Amino acid sequence: MVDGWWMTDTAALVKRLEEATVGGRGLDGLIAFTLGWRFNGCREYQHIESWEKIAGHWYSPEQLRLSLVERLKLAQDVENFRSPPFYTTLLDAALMLVGEERRWVLERCRVGLWPSRDYVFHCCVYTELDEAVGPSGVSRAPTASLAVCIAALRARAMTQAQEQE
């Protein structure tokens, strides 16, 4: 991994999301890349974050399972392509990262003393293995979507690590 930031490493992606103050399409692209999406306009992985400025289109993991001939046929019609979900800006899209089989809790908390109007969001994501030990994914972020993304990616990484053991 060069410079550690084009997100085949979930920990590096989580760190980027924790540093963000708002969501954006660049972060959505990094999440999508981590989840198996591929962008054909990016010759080098470090350009994933600026994918909207580069001509090309995304292939979803389902589309990548197609044969090369099927993908070439697919490429003939631009209607067949879609961009990654707005994970970091829409709560519904962020919840797709959690999955239906997991429980989650999202709270909005005031930062500082009473006259403060600043809020932060806390999110916990629980997997099947967490009932006795607590949540796999915990986060704190300035927006609800970012908090859910961080917690969901942490829980996903924890689940993958447990499955490999």
Commentary on this structure:
- With 165 residues, this protein is an alpha+beta fold.
- It has helices at 10-19, 25-34, 61-64, 68-75, 91-98, 144-164; strands at 38-39, 58-59, 103-110, 119-126, 137-141.
- The strands form two sheets. It has a three-stranded antiparallel β-sheet. A two-stranded antiparallel ribbon has the order 1-2.
- It has one domain (10-164).
- The model is unreliable at 1-7 (pLDDT under 50).
- A hairpin with an 8-residue loop joins strand 3 and strand 4.
- Helix 1 (10-19) packs antiparallel against helix 2.
Which regions have little confidence, pLDDT < 50, spanning 5+ residues?
Answer: 1-7
Strand content: 15-25%
What is the straight-line distance between the termini?
Answer: 24 Å
Form type: globular
**H-E string:** HHEEHHHEEEH
Number of continuous helical runs: 6
The counted number of beta strands is 5
| Tally of domains | 1
Radius of gyration: 17 Å
pLDDT averaged over residues? 80
Label this structure with key terms.
three-stranded antiparallel beta sheet; 165 residues; 15% strand; globular; single chain; alpha+beta; 5 strands
Strand-helix topology:
Blueprint: H1 10-19, H2 25-34, E1 38-39, E2 58-59, H3 61-64, H4 68-75, H5 91-98, E3 103-110, E4 119-126, E5 137-141, H6 144-164
Antiparallel strand pairs: 1-2, 3-4, 4-5
Helix pairs in contact: 1-2, 1-6, 5-6
